[in-house]
Amino acid sequence: MRAFSPVLEKTCFSQPHRKIVFKIVIFLVLLIGLIIVGEIIYFHQILSNNVSSETSELIVVFAGGAKRTETGYALANSGYAPCLVISPADQEALKVYDRKHRRPSTVRCIVEDKARTTFENAVYTRKIIAEHGFKSVLLVTSSYHLPRSYFLLKVLLLGNNVKIRAFGVTGGTGKNDLRSWRGKKIIYNEMVKLWGSTGELLIYKIRGCLPEENPKQIAFLKYMKSLFLFFH
């Protein structure tokens, strides 16, 4: 009876496994590469589109700076939509905004005061849209923030026959600054954050609810941000 060498046996059995692992790694690298290329094309397309000038039933502002809120009110006051949501903003904040931006009585404000992340902006906006039966929405946020915001809201509203238009707010870190080195870093950060927001979306779909803890305060996520994001 022929004796097998343990070393030879290990080599014979591990060689096919190495090939399989190598093929899997190559496939994953190519897949990730294709996804990243697709993301770059998507960001370029959204950022290159002209600002919408059509009216809608609802203006939604994903809050994150005075310029976004100011623009949302200006659009509502100009007749772009009869209803306005600032996500998030409680009653007291809305009173301050109303006085500052002189909201007319013809424009109705709907309260959304729970969102803690961009993904949650989209979740609570979807609930408002469904509750009130809106069929057209004008999404207002900073230009650099628009690709991620639009993607999340679009995915959450799939199958609801709701038309989403986009209005990118320029100025400060807006569209006109995105060709600079600082602007490129901002876009890179948004592309990375889109992966994080997509992770939030997947977890939400699996669990069927939002987490009790603020995602921004989770230690692991803070660590991942420190690894992959540029900080100004």
Give an account of the 3D structure.
This protein has 232 residues and is an alpha/beta fold. The chain folds into two domains: 48-172, HUPs (Rossmann fold, 3-Layer(aba) Sandwich); 181-228, no CATH class. Helix content is 56%, strand content 12%. The chain has helices spanning 6-48, 66-77, 91-101, 118-132, 146-156, 181-207, 219-228, and strands at 58-62, 83-87, 108-111, 136-142, 163-169. Strands 3-2-1-4-5 form a five-stranded parallel beta sheet, with helices on both faces. β1, α2 (66-77) and β2 (83-87) form a beta-alpha-beta unit. α4 crosses α5 (146-156). The longest helix has 43 residues, at 6-48. The radius of gyration is 23 Å and the shape is elongated. It starts with 5 loop residues before the first helix and ends with a helix.
What is the CATH topology classification name of the largest domain?
Rossmann fold
Overall pLDDT, averaged?
Answer: 89
Poorly predicted segments: none
State the domain count.
Answer: 2
Strand neighbour order, sheet with most strands: 3-2-1-4-5
Looking at CATH, the homologous superfamily of the largest domain is HUPs
* Secondary structure category: alpha/beta
**How far do the termini sit from each other?**
71 Å
Radius of gyration: 23 Å
Shape: elongated
Describe the SSE topology.
Elements: H1 6-48, E1 58-62, H2 66-77, E2 83-87, H3 91-101, E3 108-111, H4 118-132, E4 136-142, H5 146-156, E5 163-169, H6 181-207, H7 219-228
Parallel strand pairs: 1-2, 1-4, 2-3, 4-5
Question: Which key features would you list for this structure?
Answer:
single chain; 232 residues; alpha/beta; Rossmann fold; 5-stranded parallel β-sheet; elongated
